[in-house]
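PROTEIN DATA CARD
Card holder: Aldo/keto reductase
Chain length: 331
Origin: Rhizobium aouanii
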Amino acid sequence: MLTKPASLTTITLWNGREIPRLGMGCWAIGGPFFASDTPLGWGDVDDDESVEAINRAIELGIRFFDTASNYGAGHSEEVLGRAIGNRDDIVIATKFGFATDPETKQATGAFADEAFIRRSVETSLRRLKRDRLDLLQFHLNDFPLEQSDAVFDTLEALRAEGKIDAFGWSTDFPDRAARHVGRQGYVSIQHTMNVFEPVPEMISVIEGKGLMSINRGPLAMGLLTGKFTADKAVGAKDVRGAALDWMVYFKDGRMAPEFAARLDAVRDLLTSGGRTLTQGALAWLWARSPRTLPIPGFRTVAQVAENAGALEKGPLPADVMAGIDSALDRF
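Structure generated from the sequence above:
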């Protein structure tokens, strides 16, 4: 289990290691992949630039990187393996559950049987060039509770065999988050959380059960960077332009008007204390709970530097947090 956070901007992991309370999300650096014609990635990437950005993050103190076996049909793991390899001072979290074809870059289904899990682990170890996976997360968000027991039995076995150090679930459902508390090695929940989605029920479970809250979507898929205007559209290979049920922040590839209004209501508060909008969004997460570890995505050195710069300024103060709550109450 996660132990008590050591300070405002560090966190102590299940293995006793203290790291900054900021990771880097590696979905975008995987490059394009698809479900038929529907894009699931964030557009084209430059692998050399990705490696440079990873190295810069490490130079700035970042010690946690999150990826998944399907990001870029495995390419994200390969890029991390190239940049980091088997360094034991870096924590790499990956996920399993979605199958992809690395040749066609196509999604081929979702699976959770023991044979698939074991194959996925071996593939991730090879791509990442690791002897053991630090944190392995179940990627199927709404997988049936009862059926998940067998999945986590397999994860316990893999931990006993030394293939993984710890495991968790990437899910937005509090009942699923709570299901496997008490299993040796069950340490984390990865879930959507940001200024627009404070998810109090999930945080209540996480804090009550002593888990780590790994925050995906901490910047609302880019809205909280301030780089989007009403008329700016994403590229043709960008998942934010896809007509997916869970794509709430963007509609038809452009910023959803209802979230644009929310952003305008809190922009000044988030940028208080000399923070950029991005840094304010990360600082909100740190102030929201001592268990949070946001994992903003990146593709460039500049993005990494801005994200890491939030650590120097720390969590938002209580009066600013209260002002943000008040500003968003009317929506």
